[in-house]
Every structure is written in C-alpha cells, then in structure tokens.
C-alpha cells in the first residue's frame, strides 16, 4: 500500500506566530536600540512587521535571531539621514550575496561592535537574551535559563500563538497521509508547541534545529538549515515513504529547500493563510518553486487530492 508523506514546518503552517515571533523580533530590535545601546533613530526608521517581511524576502533568514540581529546591525551602521531610503539598496545587496546573516556581515564588513550577537543567552548574546525574554515572558524565561529577566517583566508572546490545523483536521489528515515535521525551532520550543496544543501524537518523526546543529558539528559543516534541503532529506530518511512527498512551508526558503532536494522528488506547497500579506507572499512562494499555494488550512485536503 502506498504511503504518502506530508512534512510540515511549524511556524506559519501549523501555528500562527504573527503575534509571537514576529512581535518578538520587532520588540527586541526596538528594546536593544533604545534601552540597551541608547540609540535614538528619531522616527527616521520605523521597525515594524513590514521591515521584518522585507528582510525575510531576501532569503536566508529562517532563524529569527539572525533576522533580529540583522535589523539591529543595519540600524546601527546606517547613516541617520538616509536610513529609510537606503534600506532597499541594502537589502538588494544582501539578497545578491544569498541572504541571511552571513550576507549582512559581508555587506556591512561584519556586524557592528555594538551588536552583541555571539555565544548564547547565558554567555553574553544580548540580542538573543532580549528576544527570549519577550518570547517566553518573565516566568518562563526564569525557569528555562535560571536567570532573572532584565528587559521584559510581562507575559511572553508565545502565549498568543494559535493552532492553525486543529486536532480534528490532523485526525483526518493522518488517515490519508503520514504526518511529519521539519522545523527551525529548537527542541525545547518545538516540544512546547507539541505539549501546549497536545498534537505530538500526530507527528512520530520531528526534525528540529537541535538535530541540525548536532549534524553540523558532527560533519564539520555549516549552514545545513533551510534553505539547505538537508533538514527535509533527514526527515524523509527517518520515515518509510513509498509515495508522494509534500513539504508545507510559508517562506521562500522553505520552497527553495524543497526544490533543492536531489535525493527525492518533493512537492512544495506554500502556505499563505497566516501571513499578513498573502497576495505578495503567494507571488514570492511561486517564484521560489511552490507547485501549489494553500490559502486556508482546509485547502490542504484539496491539494492532496490534486
């Protein structure tokens, strides 16, 4: 009997993160600039969801910490007089170098010294620390890192996340396709989603960023995360699949990773139902290789029958 496989990203596909990760990026960048390094942009550069989307459009920003550090790096290094008008040219250059934090460093000649983005939360990575304080909130941050929060004493943005594919939908999906996950979240945050929404039972195989980091160290390689197809290929190798393979993602990097798989033929499906600008996103996803575009979670069922 043929067994088709559906590999899902979490953010923007299974879970709506517009009020969590997206807001954490914006709040972290603003907090870092205003409170940590006391940089006043004077209203010349408004960091909002539009700026986040513009950076993501460059590709290579599957990691939200990288994206946040990139926004801060641009704000710190730019001339105050042309900081807004110069953004398009800056992002074009970043895209020409392939996108992501490494491309930002090439364009800027390295991140400015004011941007503390090395190590981890406990070892001086201020960008990541502020981000985690906003995402987890004071209580959960304190429990996870055994540190007192300095920048956010309120509830974390993670509490605002909503499940996009309900348990009832997943019940139906698992009857017609094997469900699996390949996500840029680390293991802790991935498990947090599975437990909070009680959906772990639907996904016997989950590959997360911790798995990729371990393989990078073991293999002596860098940048195996999306848009590199490695995470999708690793997921497939853990499944028994003899039929069609679908990958459901919401970014161009997701589509590039699916198209880039050489070992398997992947059907890339772009999901725009949890994006603030779905029409613009659809064009970008198709250009990156999406064979189908889902405008609602329910439409996934139709695409599986196509």
Show the helix and strand layout.
Elements: E1 5-8, E2 15-16, H1 21-36, H2 49-57, H3 64-77, H4 87-96, H5 100-108, H6 126-145, E3 162-163, H7 167-176, E4 178-182, H8 187-197, E5 205-207, H9 209-219, H10 230-237, E6 245-249, H11 252-259, E7 267-271, H12 278-287, E8 292-294, H13 299-304
Parallel strand pairs: 1-4, 1-6, 4-5, 6-7, 7-8
Antiparallel strand pairs: 2-3
Would you give an account of this structure?
The protein is an alpha/beta fold and 306 residues long. The protein has 2 domains: 5-16 and 162-304, Rossmann fold; 21-157, no CATH class. It is 46% helix and 9% strand. It has 13 helices and 8 strands. The strands form 2 sheets. A 6-stranded parallel beta sheet has the order 5-4-1-6-7-8. Helix 1 packs parallel to helix 3 (64-77), helix 1 crosses helix 6 (126-145) and helix 2 crosses helix 3. The longest helix has 20 residues, at 126-145. The model has no long low-confidence stretch (mean pLDDT 93).
What descriptive keywords fit this protein?
Rossmann fold, 6-stranded parallel sheet, 13 helices, globular, 306 residues, 2 domains
- How many discrete structural domains? 2
Number of helical runs? 13
Q: Separation of termini?
A: 19 Å
Q: Write the element-wise H/E pattern from the N-terminal end onward.
A: EEHHHHHHEHEHEHHEHEHEH
Q: Would you give the CATH topology of the largest domain?
A: Rossmann fold
Oligomer: single chain
Largest sheet: 6 strands, parallel
DSSP E strands, number: 8
Class of secondary structure makeup: alpha/beta
Strand content: 5-15%
Based on the coordinates given, report the CATH architecture of the largest domain.
Answer: 3-Layer(aba) Sandwich
The average pLDDT is 93
CATH class of the largest domain reads Alpha Beta
């Amino acid at each position: 009997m043929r067994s088709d496989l559906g590999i899902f990203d979490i953010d923007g596909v299974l879970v709506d993160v517009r009020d969590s990760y997206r807001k954490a990026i914006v709040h972290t960048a603003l907090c870092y600039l205003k409170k940590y390094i006391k940089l006043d942009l004077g209203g010349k550069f408004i960091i909002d969801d539009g700026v986040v989307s513009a950076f993501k459009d460059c590709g290579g920003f599957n990691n939200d910490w990288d994206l946040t550090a990139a926004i801060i790096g641009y704000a710190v290094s730019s001339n105050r007089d042309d900081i807004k008008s110069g953004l398009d040219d800056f992002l074009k250059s970043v895209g020409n170098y392939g996108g992501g934090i490494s491309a930002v460093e090439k364009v800027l000649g390295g991140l400015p010294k004011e941007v503390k983005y090395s190590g981890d939360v406990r070892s001086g990575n201020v960008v990541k620390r502020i981000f985690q304080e906003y995402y987890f909130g004071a209580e959960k941050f304190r429990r996870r890192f055994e540190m007192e929060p300095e920048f956010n004493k309120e509830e974390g943005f993670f509490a605002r996340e909503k499940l996009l594919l309900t348990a009832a939908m997943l019940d139906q999906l698992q009857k017609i396709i094997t469900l699996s996950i390949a996500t840029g979240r680390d293991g802790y945050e991935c498990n947090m989603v599975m437990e909070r929404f009680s959906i772990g039972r639907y996904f016997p195989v989950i590959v997360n960023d911790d798995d990729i980091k371990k393989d990078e160290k073991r293999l002596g390689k860098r940048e195996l995360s999306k848009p590199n197809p490695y995470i999708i290929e690793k997921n497939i190798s853990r499944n028994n699949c003899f039929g069609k393979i679908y990958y459901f993602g919401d970014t161009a990097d997701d589509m590039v990773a699916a198209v880039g798989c050489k070992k398997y033929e992947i059907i890339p499906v772009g999901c725009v139902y949890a994006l603030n600008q779905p029409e613009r996103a659809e064009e970008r996803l198709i250009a990156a290789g999406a064979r189908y575009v889902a405008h609602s979670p329910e439409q996934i069922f139709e695409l599986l029958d196509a």
